[in-house]
Amino acid sequence: MPYVTRYLDDSITVNAPAKLNLFLHITGRRPNGYHELESLFAFTKQGDKIHIKQSDLPGFRVEGLFAKHLKGLDPKENLVLKAATILAEYAARPLDVTICLEKNLPVASGIGGGSADAAATLLALDAFWGLDCNKNFLESLALQLGADVPACLYNVPLYVTGIGECMAPADLPKQYGVVLINPGVALSTPAVFKAYRAQAKQFDAPMGRVLPKDSFRFIEFLKAKTHNSLLAASKTLCPEIVAVLSLLKQDKQALYVQMSGSGATCFALYNTQKEADSAARRIRALMPSWWVMADTLSL
Ligand SMILES: C[C@@](CO)(OP(=O)(O)O)[C@H](O)COP(=O)(O)OP(=O)(O)OC[C@H]1O[C@@H](n2ccc(N)nc2=O)[C@H](O)[C@@H]1O
Ligand SMILES: Nc1ncnc2c1ncn2[C@@H]1O[C@H](COP(=O)(O)OP(=O)(O)O)[C@@H](O)[C@H]1O
Q: What does the sequence similarity comment in the record state about its family (predicted)?
């Protein structure tokens, strides 16, 4: 579970890191329209943050680099308030808190920022109100908020199937450094799935949870046996992805390059965070308008 920090004044902060799909295969479609996935989820250490404190007047505030990208969204539609409302209803208590979302991750970018915010809000309020909800119950609330939200309750590598609700632990061979790039184009997940349906000829065959334990073999496995089935659809909606992937692939130290989720964020894995930091500095110098983040994947 993500780290919950409780301060002396009883306020609470929970991290809401970025989710990466190291691979994303689409294995079918349910009658309700949702797609069945097979994916390896991994999480960065940094990302958004949720701060909660007691207040007689309930409030919600958004700060941070990407706060302005949520300005047009009715606060009631924000996944943070949706998560808070759903848990308050269950606990039959008023929403007697002020919530601040520190929005550091780009919006609609394939790295599940909104999902991470929703999961972090559930965990923060569960701790703040001392509810001690069991994990299956929190997962069921999370799934009502979005397919990616249950996994974001854990923030450790997970082998994910179903529409996102079936999760099994997945060991990464080591603590990889990672560079994330978003070219500044928001991509709507439903629009990408729609474009995928127009283009895709057949679903992927399920592979099963077969992850090499040794780093060299793991990277070879990712390169040779996996892909992101939404990539072609995302590229048609956001051609900038081609340039992002090409720049990431030019770096000889990059071990593995892929797009996350429905895009447009792409990432490269590195042996160390130091290598990722250097790559991020080079890319920022070349493409100052792109969002570039270097970090380490959680184990
Ligand atoms: C594609 C993925 C891969 O991890 O990530 P993102 O690109 O959003 O980060 C996720 O499955 C996204 O999960 P999430 O963003 O929570 O999806 P939801 O809000 O539940 O659904 C948004 C829309 O995406 C489509 N959708 C989502 C998940 C899924 N398994 N099948 C789908 O078809 C549906 O059209 C749905 O209406
Ligand atoms: N806290 C939030 N952060 C980001 N997006 C949010 C949030 N709450 C609601 N949304 C809505 O959810 C949509 C998907 O957001 P996001 O989770 O960032 O996408 P993705 O999973 O593709 O990275 C946004 O377009 C926005 O309208």
A: Belongs to the GHMP kinase family. IspE subfamily.
Distance from the CA of 96 to the center of ligand 1, in angstroms?
Answer: 31
182 lines ligand 1 (CB under 6 A): no
The mean pLDDT value of the chain amounts to 97
* 1, pLDDT greater than 80: no
Helix residue ranges, H only, the chain: 79-91, 113-128, 135-145, 149-152, 189-199, 215-225, 231-237, 240-250, 273-286
DSSP 8-state symbol, 297 = B
Cβ distance 269 to 219 under 8 Å?
A: yes
- Which residue owns the Cα nearest ligand 2 atom 5? 114
Indicate which CATH number applies to the domain containing 149. 3.30.230.10
Residue 115, C-beta contacts closer than 8 angstroms, at least 6 positions apart: 19, 79, 145, 146, 148, 149, 151, 152
* Closest ligand 2 atom to Cα of 263: 22
136 with 186, same domain: the answer is no
Section 265-275 average pLDDT: 98
Q: Rounded to an integer, what distance in angstroms lies between the CA atom of residue 156 and that of residue 44? A: 9
Residues in the chain: 299
pLDDT of residue 205 exceeding 80, the answer is yes
Ligand 1 centroid to residue 28 C-alpha, Å: 14
Same domain for 216 and 115? no
| Domain of residue 278, CATH code | 3.30.70.890
Residue 162, annotated as binding a ligand: no
Q: What is the CA radius of gyration of the chain?
A: 19
Distance between Cα 92 and ligand 2 center (Å): 27
Give the three-state DSSP class for 24.
strand
